[in-house]
Design a protein that fits this description.
The complex is a heterodimer of chains A (110) and B (113).
Chain A lengths: L3 E4 L2 E4 L5 E7 L6 E7 L3 E10 L2 E4 L6 E7 L2 E6 L8 E9 L2 E4 L3 E5 L1
Chain B lengths: L2 E3 L4 E5 L4 E3 L2 E3 L6 E7 L6 E7 L6 E3 L2 E6 L4 E6 L8 E8 L6 E2 L3 E6 L1
Parallel strand pairs in B: 2-12
Antiparallel strand pairs in B: 1-4, 3-9, 5-6, 5-10, 7-8, 8-9, 10-11, 10-12
Classes of the chains: A mainly beta (110), B mainly beta (113).
Chain lengths: 110, 113
């Protein structure tokens, strides 16, 4: 009964192709976040949303776009995937009172 | 700007040893929240503790304890009598007024039998 799910869990794509990752929540949280995790860098914030159609950039937003057309879904798009975007991507929901993370999406760009 | 520093990249201990994971943070906000998360080899992120900036009381939960000191901007995590199951990557995180949850780079803890 996870309140947050990510899809797909794994994906291999070719350089230059567009890729969309989906984060779905059933908790009706206002705030949603996308992070990438890379060795030596921890989790770095890509984009976050504070409401439907309200989004803002994080520290590593170049090459990524997001959309949130309804409360429960937060999409992360790589318009033209590059090898440097090979990573594990995590979605999170919550506020200062606590955050819940999805299981992650392992994306490989070849 | 907000920043979280976990200077210890990797720590190795033998079972039953005590180990402390350091976390130093930077923020200009007076109201903020600090977190610790555990990431076991399976990859999920497991919430351990949340502390707000107005509560400097130390906390103990079983073998885990946390020391929050605003004077040194530190929120350190101690595992007493470590066990092999404690092997994981541990992340410290901070959020203030900007609504951006910022993580440190993590500390990999290896506990050997």
């Amino acid at each position: 009964d996870a309140g947050i799910t990510q899809s797909p869990r794994h994906k291999v794509t070719e350089t230059g192709t567009p890729v969309t990752l989906r984060c779905h929540q059933t908790e009706n949280h206002r705030y949603m976040y996308w992070y990438r995790q890379d060795p030596g860098h921890g989790l770095r914030l890509i984009h976050y949303s504070y409401g439907v159609k309200d989004t803002d950039k994080g520290e590593v937003s170049d090459g990524y776009s997001v959309s949130r057309s309804k409360t429960e879904d937060f999409l992360l798009t790589l318009e033209s995937a590059t090898s440097s975007q090979t990573s594990v991507y995590f979605c999170a929901i919550g506020t200062g009172y606590g955050y819940t993370f999805g299981s992650g999406t392992r994306l490989t760009v070849v | 700007a907000q920043k979280v520093t976990q200077a210890q990249t990797e720590i190795s201990v033998v079972e039953k040893e005590d180990v402390t994971l350091d976390c130093v943070y930077e923020t200009r906000d007076t109201t903020y929240y600090l977190f610790w998360y555990k990431q076991p080899p399976s990859g999920e992120l497991v919430f351990l503790i949340r502390r707000n900036s107005f509560d400097e009381q130390n906390e103990i939960s079983g073998r885990y304890s946390w020391n929050f000191q605003k004077s040194t901007s530190s929120f350190n995590f101690t595992i007493t009598a470590s066990q092999v199951v404690d092997s994981a990557v541990y992340f410290c995180a901070l959020i203030g007024r900007t609504d951006k949850l910022i993580f440190g780079t993590g500390t990999r803890l290896q506990v050997f039998p």
